[in-house]
Amino acid sequence: MGPIYILALSILTLHLSAVPSVLATFQPLAVPFRSPVTVAAGLSASVIFSNLTTPRGITFDTEQNLLVVERGFGVTAFTPTTFPAPGWNRTVVIQNTGFTQGIQIDGDKLYVSTATTTFIYQYNALNRSIAPNVAPISIVTGIPGDGDLTTHTLQLEQDVSGKAVALLIADGPLENIDVTARDPASGRSQIRRFVLPTISFSDPPAPLSWANGQIIAFGIRNPAGFAFPTVGIPPSGSKFLLVVENGASIDGLANLTSAFVNDNPSDELEFVKYPISLSGIASTAPKTYGFPDCTSLWNPLADPVGNPSFVNKTRGFQFSLELEPSRDDAFCANVSNNQPPILNFQAHSVPLDIKFYEPPQRFTPKGLPLLLLGHAFVSFHGSFDRSPPTGYGVVQFPYPISRPANNGLGYSFVVQATNLNTCPGSCIRPVGLAFGKDGRLFVSSDSSGELFVIEQQ
Prior knowledge:
Protein name: Pyrroloquinoline quinone-dependent pyranose dehydrogenase beta-propeller domain-containing protein
Structural class: mainly beta
Signal peptide: 1-24
Radius of gyration: 22 Å
Largest sheet: 6 strands, mixed
Pfam families: TrAA12 (PF22807)
Organism: Hypholoma sublateritium (strain FD-334 SS-4)
Number of helices: 4
Domain Pyrroloquinoline quinone-dependent pyranose dehydrogenase beta-propeller: 38-456
Helix content: under 10%
Number of strands: 31
């Protein structure tokens, strides 16, 4: 009777996991993906939880609970368990339909964001809950919340001792091609940095204003994911940051054919160096990465008849969208107007997060191969306006970047939807990435409502 009991309980809790609840719910192992996936040789991918509400940003707390922003619901925690069978428990941490994507953890401080405000909650990792009767701190207010993309990725910056000293916040454009983003003061399509005050929940600091944040980069259309590389030492008083950017949809531009825009422009990986000292902030202007005027070529032969001017160009060529006559290709070739990317991704891949594989803190044969240490991993959400579809997976590449020869990709998939012609549908659409202490890579998939893990076989 034991196995029958467990099966019945599993079915019940799978159903409950789709329903908002203050109680923990359970899902057993071996529940299949909604749609098949293909995994790189030597690796496997498996679902840890299904039927979630648009899971987006993810991170691990100090007890290795996986925290997830379920957009439209709140924050939930996922914990491995062996009772009533091997599987995962889901616990509701905060119910708030306004949370978008950004999430960070610093000990007992949980950072999350709505479209206009970033909050800090007092969080207890042992029981996966926020402190009762303790109001969250509004740490940054006035973030532009009226644009097309208001997910506001968050990233804590640490000093050499590991102390969180600043918070980076991203903002997207007002619209697909947003001319206001040319002006860094607009607050659009950029990343701002906020030096953190002393955080006390009993005596909370005054909110920091978005308008007063340090602009570390602008002209990045949708800086959806960013991370500090684990190799390479920046000069004293500065930091390096790698940023994945979604290219604009250029279907409506009269000078470009539908065949050309089906395979252009590329999505991008940007390299950002920014000052962290007060003197550096005062003396160093932030760099622009070209949006909305400049973008990157992916396939010069996408339409050699309709757009022959690109035929002799190479992948990564910076070309103008010709929004104004003075902002032409020559304008885009000038790095003072447009910092080019260090790597190009296939058009319409829609990269949304980036993480670097650091040495695992706990050995397990399931951790990713050690030969991948230092490599970058990027989630590809996937196209909605390309035929055939592309993306719908997670890729990896070595860092520092070596430009691929002969139009090679420069990256490879570790997992991808098996039949792209059925996508989006029920395919995986990866968003958030997080490495566990054991070296396994966890992934959120929003439209399929799944969390899954990539590990060695």
